[in-house]
Predict the structure.
Amino acid sequence: MSKPQSPQQPEPHSTLAEIRATRLVKADKLRELGMNPYAYNWVSTHQAAALQLEYADLANGEEVDTPVSIAGRIIARRVMGKLAFFSIQDETGTIQLYLAKQQIEEGMSAFPDAFSHLKQLSDVGDIIGVKGTIKRADKGELSILVNEYTILTKSLLPLPDKWHGLTDVAKRYRQRYVDLIVNPEVRDTFRKRSLITAGIRRYLENLDFIEIETPVLQSEAGGADARPFNTYHNTLEMPLYLRIATELHLKRLIVGGFEKVFELGRIFRNEGVSTRHNPEFTSIEVYQAYADYEDMMRLTEEMITTVAQSVLGTLEISYQGTPISLTDPWRRVTMNDIVKEVTGLDFSSFDSLETAQAAVKNAGIGG
């Protein structure tokens, strides 16, 4: 699949306010033409990735008279007189739109000058729905030969530069929806995360564990040593805390007679924030009666390998450039032994905290 053309850029020195004002005028013009710039619905018959796969062997210049309906965000546009090429992106990937003046105006005879309106009133960032047939362009790009189009959502602000991307890490986290638009690999991470959490639930449920939702608002913030978020219940006239762990309530369920319980849920800790530390995050806690830590190690190992194989199709993965093999059996080692292996210090031999601190300092590994 060839790389899409460079996206349309705003006028030089245009401010965001000016761009927004211009696009609002375009939205009003669409309304005057009888085209709702914020359509209520659209029915797609295909997605981009499936079309790219199905017609991978279609020869250059060849057409297939198969009706196609698809929707996506315009991420690039190139206009040349009576012909235009747009690249659109849906949830699965990208595909080119082959837009010919004659084809569109025949297919949209109820809207005179529909092709000209598309050129003048559409922008990169708009969401568009199109109907047409499949065509492999002469230069090799799989395309939809468009018969008719509908502007589904008029974008009021430009997307980040396609080729420089959204590189401000803090902004990527604050405006995750923009990050998802311009960085497709992030969408893949979201998709895999969903499959992973679903896989964890399936694995545990197949072992007869049940998931129970425990209270998020708690009268005591227990289960871990972390600072809680404080809130107040007006009716009960009492302070409450957002949970910092699910531990205590899950243990009470074991006391109450359940034998296998877990919860995969949100945790809140009122502490520092960075790209590696979020005050709101997802955790899982699993409790099983009549089981010891050896049982839980086996369960953890099998759960991770099972889910990895299901989601990724392999147990050989890479994390930040470092290859990792999840193949079992995993090594079992105590914290003390692994620290001794790496540092040469045996903390079980120290008779006091002060002695341990002095040893760490002498080894040159202390802060």
About this structure: The radius of gyration is 28 Å.
